[in-house]
Amino acid sequence: MPARAIRTVSILRWLATGAALVLLTACNLATPSPAPTVTPAAPTLAASTPTPTTKPAIQRVDIADNKLPSIAVSQGTTVVWTNRDQAPHTTTAGTPGITNGPWDSPVLDSGKEFSFTFSQPGEFAYWCRVHPGMTGKITVR
What is the pTM of this model? Predict the structure, then answer.
């Protein structure tokens, strides 16, 4: 092939390559790529389940005027008896002369306390071992 033909082929290749580049560039300008969209992530909050903070129920009961009160409480309640009399008393499950229940306090002098937690439902009669005529009842729901 003569040199002039080789040169013409080289020029044609160069022109073809240039034209192709111009076309590609024009195509890219004519149909721009969509801009990337950035979607912010929704804030994530740690799912927390609150822990129940239930305090145990406490029911205070005064032993006063030589009387043991009858009360009703919920299951799980702790009853705290306080002797407000000058005379000593007890709080004893059962009926006078029969100690057959789940608690029996020591003798409580004036101002002293005794407590018991009622974990089972039911009706619980109680009495004072020092004064058997003093009776009461705890109803647990």
Answer: 0.61
